[in-house]
Amino acid sequence: MLSLTLLCLLIPALSFAQDGSISGPTSSSDAAGYSCNASACKLPKCNCASTSPPGGLDPADVPQFLVYTADDAVQSYTIDSVNQFLAQRMNPNGCTPRMTYYTSLNYTNYTLVTDWFVAGNEIADHTMTHVGSPPNDEIDGNLIALNALAGIPLSSIIGFRAPYLNYTADTLSHLAASGFTYDSSATSSIPVTENGTDAFWPYTLDYGMANDCLNVDGLCKGKPKLPGFWEVPMYAMFDSLGIDGPHLMDPWLDPADGSSTVDDNATLTYMQNTFLAHYNGNRQPFGLYTHPIHTATTYPGVSASNSTIDMINSFLDWAQEHEGVWIVSTEQLLAWVQNPVPLSELDSFTPLKCSVPEINQSICDGIPDNEQGLPDLCDFPDFPFYTCYGCPVEEPSPDNPNPPQQNASNGQEPRYRLPANCSTPWWDPVKGTCLCSGASCQYHDISRPIGPNGANLTGGDTDRASSGIPSPTASFLSFNGNGASASFPAGTWPAIMVGFFGIVGGLYLIRI
Ligand SMILES: *[C@@H]1O[C@H](CO)[C@@H](O)[C@H](O)[C@H]1NC(C)=O
Ligand SMILES: *[C@@H]1O[C@H](CO)[C@@H](O)[C@H](O)[C@H]1NC(C)=O
Ligand SMILES: *[C@@H]1O[C@H](CO)[C@@H](O)[C@H](O)[C@H]1NC(C)=O
Ligand SMILES: *[C@@H]1O[C@H](CO)[C@@H](O)[C@H](O)[C@H]1NC(C)=O
Ligand SMILES: *[C@@H]1O[C@H](CO)[C@@H](O)[C@H](O)[C@H]1NC(C)=O
Ligand SMILES: *[C@@H]1O[C@H](CO)[C@@H](O)[C@H](O)[C@H]1NC(C)=O
Ligand SMILES: *[C@@H]1O[C@H](CO)[C@@H](O)[C@H](O)[C@H]1NC(C)=O
Ligand SMILES: *[C@@H]1O[C@H](CO)[C@@H](O)[C@H](O)[C@H]1NC(C)=O
Ligand SMILES: *[C@@H]1O[C@H](CO)[C@@H](O)[C@H](O)[C@H]1NC(C)=O
Ligand SMILES: *[C@@H]1O[C@H](CO)[C@@H](O)[C@H](O)[C@H]1NC(C)=O
Ligand SMILES: *[C@@H]1O[C@H](CO)[C@@H](O)[C@H](O)[C@H]1NC(C)=O
Ligand SMILES: [Zn+2]
Questions:
Q1: Cα 360 to ligand 7 centre (Å)
Q2: Domain that holds residue 222
Q3: 102-116, 145-159, 464-478: segment of lowest average pLDDT
Q4: Angstrom distances, CA of residue 225 to CA of 135, 139, 183, 208
Q5: Which interval of the chain is the signal sequence (predicted)?
Q6: What is the pLDDT of residues 278-300, one digit of tens each?
Q7: Mutate which of 356, 358, 359, 360 to test ligand 7's pocket (most atoms within 8 Å of Cβ)?
Q8: What is the position in ligand 6's atom list of the atom closest to the CA of 264?
Q9: 29 lines ligand 5 (CB under 6 A)
Q10: Which of 30, 162, 187, 441 has CA atoms 20 to 30 A from the CA of 51?
Q11: Could you tell me if the CB of 393 is within 6 A of ligand 8?
Q12: Using N-to-C axis directions, what is the helix angle for 136-150 and 169-177, rounded to 10°?
């Protein structure tokens, strides 16, 4: 049970969930003043900002990506919240969808970051203490602390989103200089159906930015030039007011169509209409950009609306009935944009596959079944957290993102942090040994070439009977929670998959 004191201390995490709203266009063709030399700018290192799919593909051969992201602190409540929408689903290749968690560190429970990463999700940077116009130490410190205390390889943290979507040209330059691959803070604010839409596919900044030109100083007209650094725009949705009715993050918290009250039916309608505009057009990615706390059902003392949760699941069920729809992390989207293969070849596209490491030892490695009892409790008064990698003497901060380890009171030896030449699930932080090295590590590929969405990608025998994955089916299956557990990779999910549909109370969360 949580003490009342702890509960009060957790509540501040809610106050972070206020980023991301726009009220009208944040760009225009004039303000963008964008021009790109398409004969010099070639994939995979360069891509011009364009509303057409990369690689010159015909939209009919292009997957409709549905990018799913979450922002802010990682806690059991927020993981439960994401799981109620994704864990029961499958992409056309049979894999559980992955998503991107833009993680800030205040109130983050580090072992859950480790678990979420090892389960295949992308962990990205959202500053340490959640500040807009972020100073460099907030950005770099997040990387360092996630590496030290959550065991995320530095090479795997490739993306950034600014808190409150508040960034500057300097933020982008710093990200590029620090070796990040992409930023995803800019907004696409004009419907895909309008002339002059700013719904560009992800692009590199070789020729400057083409989004947010009216919103952020020092962008566009060729600036900032950051060759090889990507912008992945956040695509707004639009209600019946069209360009004057944009919705960006947590759209289910917004009243729509000029109304003053939230109506889940109205939200569902414009989400579907915007999705169809993308799907029937150039198939620019569609995004669900969420603060999971707003749909949390296990957060002590607060509870989301059942009707909103059901609406979001209905939307996802409906979207998945369309052929060629893939729910992905930002990292997966970008991997495809860099190497755009047609829909018919997606079944063999490695970044969309799901393989789980076969590790069967009692080590603290992000696999819940393995790590039982092993994480250390770091009992800091404002937010106690767990880590596999040894408690620091003080909480990480931008001034000191990687404090020295505590000498454990129980006489336990210091833990070993993840080295650069071992990957998270194979590293034993207690013994300081890597159970595997190089490409020879044993992984178990659980993807399959045919999906449940009528995608019929390749056909043929998949020989996955022993993996616990259901046989391919030719027609769509409803994922509405029924029979879902059959598809979970053994040993990977169960411990973090608590609280499914466990909805209590009726307090509606208002936007704060
Ligand atoms: C565009 O790039 C090509 C190939 O690098 C080059 O030959 C051409 O001069 C460039 N055009 C302009 C307008 O810069
Ligand atoms: C933190 O993580 C530990 C270990 O995984 C878990 O037992 C605990 O419930 C988590 N607490 C929160 C608030 O996330
Ligand atoms: C959270 O961030 C604030 C700065 O905004 C900092 O003063 C505080 O110590 C942080 N708390 C935790 C738990 O990291
Ligand atoms: C962005 O963040 C900075 C620093 O926190 C703040 O001064 C500024 O007002 C913010 N800008 C916007 C548009 O929110
Ligand atoms: C876009 O421009 C074209 C040609 O100028 C015009 O025919 C079309 O009606 C315009 N569409 C919209 C939605 O404004
Ligand atoms: C939403 O739509 C459903 C089904 O069409 C209907 O039963 C329900 O009353 C509607 N709710 C509102 C608030 O309009
Ligand atoms: C993992 O351990 C379980 C029980 O200890 C055993 O049944 C299973 O065969 C082991 N799997 C592997 C791949 O070693
Ligand atoms: C941990 O213990 C060692 C040896 O007893 C001591 O030298 C060191 O200063 C201690 N570190 C901390 C952070 O207390
Ligand atoms: C990793 O690097 C360390 C030195 O930094 C070396 O001692 C160790 O053998 C390497 N491990 C593997 C598995 O290559
Ligand atoms: C899947 O099969 C159906 C029926 O044969 C066909 O209409 C549809 O075009 C196929 N879809 C793909 C993506 O090949
Ligand atoms: C929400 O749904 C859950 C599970 O279906 C149910 O137990 C709970 O009573 C519902 N809450 C409200 C306010 O309807
Ligand atoms: Zn945030």
A1: 6
A2: 4-347
A3: 464-478
A4: 20, 20, 14, 5
A5: 1-17
A6: 999 999 999 999 999 999 998 88
A7: 360
A8: 13
A9: no
A10: 162
A11: yes
A12: 40
- Residue 401 CB neighbour total at 10 angstroms: 22
How remote is the CA of residue 370 from the centroid of ligand 7, in Å? 11
Count of domains observed in the chain: 1
**Residue 324 domain-assigned (yes or no):** yes
DSSP symbol at 345? G
* CA-wise closest residue to 336 among 48, 58, 44: 44
Can you tell me the distance from the alpha carbon of 321 to that of 318, in angstroms, rounded to the nearest whole number? 5
- Rounded CA-CA distance 363/415 in Å is 12
Protein residue whose Cα sits closest to atom 7 of ligand 8: 407
Query: How far does the centroid of ligand 7 lie from the alpha carbon of residue 294, in Å?
Result: 39
Mean pLDDT of the region 41-57:
98
Residue 40 placed within a domain: yes
Q: What pLDDT shows up at residue 127?
A: 97
pLDDT bracket for residue 227 (50, 70, 90)? very high
The rounded Å distance from CA 427 to ligand 5 centre is 57
SS3 412: coil
- Site to substitute for ligand 2 among 78, 83, 105, 111, most atoms within 8 A of C-beta: 111
Output the domain CATH number for residue 278.
3.20.20.370
Residue 95 domain-assigned (yes or no): yes
- State in Å: Cα 78 to ligand 2 middle: 11
Please tell me the number of the ligand nearest to residue 476's CA: 10
* Residue 505 zone, left/alpha/beta (φ > 0; ψ -120 to 50; rest): left
pTM given for the model: 0.85
Q: Please name which ligand lies nearest the alpha carbon of 129.
A: 3
333 located within any domain: yes
Instruction: Grade residue 346 by pLDDT with cuts at 50, 70 and 90.
Output: confident
